[in-house]
Write a structure and sequence with these properties.
transmembrane helix, transmembrane, 152 residues, MFS_dom, membrane
Length: 152
């Protein structure tokens, strides 16, 4: 997820450089292509995090909320395009500070408990479960259930 956020931020910087300083449409197209690639990677990583880190009773809700927020962000992008239609450099540079904040946040988010369990890091998986789901008394049971599902 961090790699995707870094890639999207770098792609935004490339687009801004292409439009604001170099006036190079080829770099703008390359930046758009990179942004498209890393955006898809980021979406896939987010869905994985939502599915693996959330409590079972919230997984469907969080997945549908992800779809809803994708639509809302599309609307925000359209509105910004309408407001900033005379300033393409400003428009393509908006994701840079957002990306920097995302990277700063994601550095502190642990790996998902299921991923850590596949790496035989039971203690890390327990810490991750506490991070994502809070202090519950059934974390050992959850990990045991996941391990049993993997073995089947």
């Amino acid at each position: 997820y961090v790699v995707a956020a870094v890639g999207m931020t770098a792609a935004s910087a490339l687009q801004t450089l292409a439009v604001a300083l170099l006036t190079c449409p080829e770099l703008l197209i390359a930046g758009r292509g990179l942004m498209s690639f890393f955006s898809s990677l980021s979406d896939a990583a987010l869905v994985m995090y939502l599915q693996e880190a959330s409590p079972t009773h919230l997984r469907g809700t969080l997945s549908s909320l992800f779809c809803t927020m994708t639509v809302v962000m599309g609307l925000v992008g359209m509105l910004l395009g309408c407001v900033l239609d005379q300033s393409l450099p400003l428009l393509v540079s908006i994701p840079i500070p957002v990306g920097i904040l995302s990277i700063a946040f994601l550095v502190f988010v642990p790996e998902t408990p299921k991923y850590l369990l596949t790496k035989s890091d039971k203690e890390g998986a327990l810490r991750s479960l506490v991070f994502f789901q809070g202090n519950q008394h059934d974390h050992e049971e959850i990990l045991h259930g996941w391990k049993a599902m993997e073995e089947d």
